[in-house]
Amino acid sequence: MAALVQLRKMVDEATARYAFFRSEEKVLLRQAEQGAVERLVNGSWVRVSRPRDPEREEEWERLEPEELCYHARKYFVEDLGAKPIGWDERKERLKRLGFYRYGNPPMKGGSRRRLPPEMFDRSREAFSELLGNTRGEALEELKEEALLGYEHQRERIAAAEQRANFFLGTAGLTTSLVLANAGLLLGSDKLDSPWRALSAAALLVASICAITAGLRALQATMLTFGRTPPNSVPRVMKRRRLGKEAMVRAYVGALLVGQHRLSAIADWKIMRMKEARRWFVAASLGVVALTVLVLVDVFLG
């Protein structure tokens, strides 16, 4: 029970100093008694610049120790009671400011993009210990369920990346179309006033939206995350000396950890794809508006 004891000790020490709040598993906050509110971003705590009191806001759910243990296992939180990032750590603090988080959004639950191996080990051991009383057919059924869940998360990631490739192509085509229309604002054939100013505004909006859609699709395709495959060589070799049921429990634990990690990655990629879709629709509307303005100028001219 070493991993579960260690995890519960970490949670107890943290809850003795802070109250913890969560909003739909996306954001984890903590607040000291009559103190500042801090947010978990990429595995580190950073002070929230906008004053807030989670106790009085309906969107924030206060977490009990058991829920915090689950959150730490699922999102591989190293230390819920760690010190926040100071101003002397400029580079790390910059990565957690609001404008940086908007450009490069963090993962759900405050999880880190790159995790040390010991975080995965702790969660695997904790899940194996939770399965300590499960034996026989029940253990085999859990193994099948965990394997199905793990494969489902892999399929979600693959589907998100496949759609991202489509958006990269369409966003590039839309950007080329937007830039080609810039010729309507220059030279002897430029539009008359006021259509020229309105077209310039539509061109600016469409360009920003098309570039942002491509950026979000590129992030969903190219950005990588630390993963923990349950059947990697080190894990298989570590399980080789265990008894049959202990080996199955260790495998199920590894599957559950891998499923949690892939779920967080899939959620991140799917959210970026939803954003790419919204920006692409906005870019398309900008192109439509630009076309309408050109036609109006032609008919009125």
In short:
The protein is an alpha+beta fold. It has nine helices and five strands.
Topology, element by element:
Layout: H1 2-15, E1 18-23, E2 27-32, E3 37-41, E4 44-47, E5 61-62, H2 65-75, H3 90-94, H4 98-103, H5 117-130, H6 136-180, H7 195-222, H8 233-239, H9 244-300
Antiparallel strand pairs: 1-2, 1-5, 2-3, 3-4
Report what the structure shows:
Helices cover 62% and strands 8% of the residues. Strands 4-3-2-1-5 form a five-stranded antiparallel sheet, with no helix packed on it. The protein is elongated and about 85 Å long. The longest helix has 57 residues, at 244-300. It is built from nine helices and five strands. It has two domains: 1-112, no CATH class; 116-301, no CATH class. The termini are far apart. The chain is α+β, with helices and mostly antiparallel strands and 301 residues long. The model has no long low-confidence stretch (mean pLDDT 82).
